[in-house]
Amino acid sequence: MDTHQANKNNDHGTYFQNYYDPDICSHCGKKLETGIRFCSNCGTRIESQARAAGSLFITDDDFVTIPSGIYTMGEGYRLYRVSVSSFELMKKPVTFAQYNEYCRITGKRVPPNEGWEGDQRPVINVSFWDSLDLCDWLTEETGELHRLPTGAEWEYACRAGSNHYFNYGKKPDRRLMHCCDKHFRGASSTIEVGSLGANSWGLYDMHGNVWESCSSIYRSDYNGHEHIETGCSRLNHQQRILRGGSWDNSPDMCHSASRMYTMPADRGNHIGIRLARDIEG
């Protein structure tokens, strides 16, 4: 069947599912220019082709449901009782395979991989703003709110009911975390997501590999109250919270309560993305 015949005989998107090409307008067949949002020939919205094609690269299967609860957040003398509502969190950080597909569809910048081969490694060299752009695009394409977790949500999910330094116990375990220490592992790059064991709620890579951006604004005098940036305004340049530690940190920077901060435009080979979603209803 040729392309013209496929279009004529299809009113329900089967052509999209079988023949989708992000470089070609699915409505009129015109070759698309990189980065445009509408076909210059027929006006079709380009980014919506991904959903019509059933080719979304981040799906329901990538998320787990985190139950609601109350936990003790923080470490040392800074401990706070925090209540968290149920939400969904990605099992693993966003990979290069997923993010590169997003870039291919939207014309966004493809981040450098530092020469570390493997599309199942976590995407790196992405900023807080890049993360919010991805959230906004997925929200528009799916009709479901995609966002970054708050700092409190992230730690709650990482702990998975544990009160220990790490979600699996009190001491570093090289089988469950990827970090850098001459007495531990000596990591020199990221590894594929999901390579090590998950916590009891099914979440991988919560200790090390890449720092993960959160929606919370960083406060050195944090008192248990979240200051959250939910929109994508470029007017607020306050520091944002990072969680989890990275391949380039020692184990004591990768524990459940560990947090760092970054400016929202900063990128680095130690910063990645893990998305959250609200529970419907």
TrEMBL record:
Which InterPro entries does this UniProt record tie to the protein?
CTDL_fold (IPR016187), Sulfatase_Mod_Factor_Kinase (IPR051043), SUMF_dom (IPR005532), SUMF_sf (IPR042095), Zinc_ribbon_dom (IPR026870)
**Location of the Sulfatase-modifying factor enzyme-like domain:** 61-277
Zinc-ribbon domain span:
25-45
- At the top level, the lineage of the source is Bacteria
A Gene Ontology molecular function term for this protein is: formylglycine-generating oxidase activity
* Name of the protein: Sulfatase-modifying factor protein
Species the sequence originates in:
Endozoicomonas montiporae CL-33
